[in-house]
Amino acid sequence: MTSTTRPLLNRRLAEFGTTIFAEMSALALSTGSINLGQGFPDTDGPEEVREAAVRALRDGRGNQYPPGPGVPELRTAIAAHQQRRYGLSYDPDTEVLVTAGATEAIAAALLALLEPGDEVIAFEPYYDSYAACIAMAGGTRVPVTLRPHEGRFRLDLDELRAAVTDRTRLLLINTPHNPTGTVLTRAELTAIAELAVERDLLVVTDEVYEHLVFDDAEHLPLATFPGMRERTVTIGSAGKSFSFTGWKVGWVTSAPGLVTAVRSAKQFLTYVSSGPFQYAVAEALALPDSYFTAFREDMLAKRDLLATGLTEAGFEVFRPAGTYFITTDIRPLGETDGFAFCRALPERAGVVAIPNAVFYDHREAGAPFVRFAFCKRTEVLEEAAKRLRAL
Ligand SMILES: *Cc1c(COP(=O)(O)O)cnc(C)c1O
Question: Which of 157, 193, 245, 293 has the most C-beta neighbours closer than 10 Å?
Fold first, then answer.
């Protein structure tokens, strides 16, 4: 076949057309709706961190290709952060890698660690890049569905164990979990760790919301569990922790062999990125605990504001223990199809949300769930809540 008769998009990516975010953001614009679809803050992070980026840029730090693994200042700051928060010690030279956001870290980890045909177990609903990256790496995704149970989306550990086969190469974990807001408990993480050790699996864990946990939930890195440090690739990001999602500074911490493997893939994706921002993020990671506490309290107040509005509007609300997002069930409103609901919502109420079904392989399992982002200014959330109450 010639290049024109054959489909242009290859078979690995054919199922991933354009993301729902493009459609919904266009709808938000054309209807003048409040966009609670995509998860980015509508205010920037700390002024001193922004100033640190300006200083780096003016001082000529990072304006040319930074070192492949990331600038030493940032690698040291990442290691110090893991030590200070979690008691995990990593060598900045051999166990830390800076990436173009968590997105590149996920892609590089999967491209580096998978052989074609390897199975990857991930929780559905999944973060939208997981399925595409597994596909690009030639892997096969095996979803384990998180299901609502007593007000929270819960992992069924028996289902997880049953999903492991002789072809399983890695577990792709995300806690705090986007979009459900579930934070895995110590008991769940212990079971995951035991399974990984027993079946000799690699683990890639996306912990970009590590600083956004609420109420009495606690973020526990999987790498802190017995037998996990040497088999776990931990991923973090400045985007979510410091509200600079456009900077695209992410990182990997892991054992030297795994970091070397991930770096092998990463060097041919971006090679390096975000030079001056790396210096600013190094300063951000060293911010005192008071920054992280205030950030969490601010987001908690936003969560509660939107959760109350959604409850009053008639949704069933799964109050998230972490992340930027609230997942709701639309069935109490007499609706069953999240896609149709989200397509109509801008006209009906002037608000944009995302149907969780797009994050599932088993679309029917996600059909009645709809996700709202609460990382927005208070007045925006108040107006959204007011509009939704009119439903
Ligand atoms: C936002 C997000 C990412 C991507 O992070 P970047 O640093 O912006 O690339 C990865 N995983 C999850 C779960 C996210 O919500």
Answer: 193
